[in-house]
Design goal:
Elements lengths: L2 H19 L8 H9 L3 E6 L2 H17 L2 E6 H5 L10 E6 L6 H12 L2 E7 L5 H5 L2 E4 L11 H18 L4 H22 L8 E6 L2 H17 L2 E6 L15 E6 L5 H13 L3 E5 L19 H13 L17
Parallel strand pairs: 1-2, 1-3, 3-4, 4-5, 6-7, 6-8, 8-9
Enzyme class: transferase
Keywords: Aminotransferase, Repeat, Transferase
GO molecular function: carbohydrate derivative binding; glutamine-fructose-6-phosphate transaminase (isomerizing) activity
C-alpha cells in the first residue's frame, strides 16, 4: 500500500486512540501550564507550507476563543526579518513536522533573541526544533510520507482543544466530532469516489476564517499528490476575479459556515451555471459535518482523499511528488 494512502486511512481509527491517549491528557502536562502562563496579548504562529496552513488555522481559533490578538506569519519572513513592527518579547508557536525546516529554525533563533518564548511544534523528538525551542511540544504521531496528512489533523485537533481548555470552555464537542470521524471518512471516500476525476482538471477550495486555512491546506494536498491546478480563497472572494477560470472541468469544495446558508446557496448556483461541479462540506452538505469551527481538524480529509484518488487516476505516485522532500533544508 502507498505510504500516503496508509497515513490518510490511518486517521479513520487512529484519531479516537490519539484523542483518548494524548489530547485528553494535555491539560495535565507541564507544557500546558507553561503555555497558559506565558500567553501574551499577541501571539505569533509561524510555519512553512502545510505547517503555515496549520499555523494560520490555529491562529484564528486562538484569537476566537482566547480573545487575544494573533498573527500567522510565513517562517521565511521571520527568519530574514521582513516582519514590520515585530515586538521585543512575547509567545510564538513554531511549526515544523520534522523539526528541521531551515526557515523555522532560523525564525526560532530570531524570536528567542527578541525575548520571545518559543513553542516548538513537531512530531520528531530528536529534531533541532524540539531541542532548540523553549517549550517543545512533540506529538506522538508517526508519519513517513512526503505529503503531510494525518499529523496535520492531529496537531490541529490538539491545539484547538488546548485553546478551549485554557479559555475554560467545554470540550465535549471535540469528543463528539472524534466519535463521528470514522463515518465522516467513509462518507468522504464514497462521495469523491463517485466523481469522474478524469473529467476535472481544476480544483477550487473555498472557506472562511479557520476554514480558509483548511482550504489552503486542501489545495496544497491536491497540488502535491496529483499535480493538479488547485486554488483556495475566502468563500465570497471567489467572485472577485478568480471565477473567470471556472469551466466544465472545475471542481469546487465549499466549506459551509454557520449563518451563511443563503450566500452559499447563491454562490453554488452561480458556479454550477458556469459549468463547475460544487460539493459542500458542512451541515446539510454533500459531505455532512458540524459547522462548528472545531470541525476544522476533520475538514482536510476530503481533499487528502481527492488528491490521492486524482493522482491514481493520472497514473502518478502520491508518494513521490516531483521536486519535493519531506524536509526543506536551505
Amino acid at each position: 500500500m502507498s505510504k500516503t494512502l496508509k497515513e490518510i486511512t490511518d486517521q479513520k481509527n487512529e484519531l479516537k486512540e490519539f484523542f483518548g491517549n494524548f489530547v485528553l491528557n494535555l491539560e495535565k502536562t507541564e507544557i500546558f501550564s507553561e503555555i497558559q502562563k506565558n500567553l501574551t496579548d499577541e501571539v505569533l504562529f509561524v510555519g512553512c507550507g502545510s505547517s503555515y496552513n496549520l499555523a494560520l488555522t490555529i491562529s484564528n481559533y486562538f484569537e476566537r476563543v482566547l480573545k487575544i490578538r494573533t498573527k500567522a506569519i510565513p517562517a521565511g519572513e521571520v527568519a530574514f526579518q521582513k516582519v514590520p513592527d515585530l515586538k521585543e518579547e512575547g509567545l510564538a508557536f513554531l511549526f515544523s513536522r520534522t523539526g528541521n525546516t531551515t526557515e523555522v529554525l532560523l525564525a526560532n533563533d530570531v524570536l528567542r533573541k527578541r525575548n520571545y518564548r518559543t513553542v516548538g511544534i513537531t512530531i520528531e523528538e530528536e529534531s533541532r526544533l524540539a531541542k532548540e525551542s523553549d517549550l517543545p511540544l512533540v506529538f506522538p504521531v508517526r508519519e513517513e510520507a512526503i505529503v503531510m496528512t494525518k499529523s496535520f489533523s492531529m496537531i490541529l485537533l490538539s491545539l484547538m482543544f488546548l485553546a478551549d481548555k485554557i479559555a475554560g470552555n467545554s470540550t465535549e464537542r471535540f469528543s463528539e466530532l472524534v466519535g463521528y470521524s470514522p463515518e465522516f471518512f467513509d462518507i468522504s471516500w464514497k462521495v469523491i469516489e463517485k466523481i469522474d476525476l478524469k473529467e476535472h482538471d481544476h480544483f477550487v477550495f473555498l472557506g472562511m476564517s479557520e476554514f480558509f486555512g483548511v482550504s489552503l491546506e486542501s489545495a496544497l494536498k491536491c497540488i502535491e499528490m496529483s499535480l493538479t491546478f488547485s486554488e483556495a480563497y475566502s468563500t465570497l472572494e471567489y467572485r472577485h476575479g478568480p471565477k473567470a477560470l471556472v469551466k466544465k472541468g472545475t471542481l469546487v469544495f465549499m466549506q459551509k459556515v454557520s449563518g451563511m446558508d443563503e450566500q452559499e446557496k447563491r454562490l453554488r448556483k452561480e458556479l454550477e451555471s458556469l459549468g463547475a461541479t460544487v460539493l459542500e462540506v458542512g451541515e446539510g452538505g454533500d459531505i455532512p459535518v458540524s459547522n462548528d469551527w472545531r470541525s476544522a481538524f476533520l475538514r482536510t480529509v476530503p481533499a487528502q482523499i481527492l488528491g490521492y484518488q486524482k493522482a491514481i487516476s493520472r497514473g502518478i505516485s502520491p508518494d513521490k511528488p516531483p521536486h519535493l522532500e519531506k524536509t526543506v533544508v536551505l
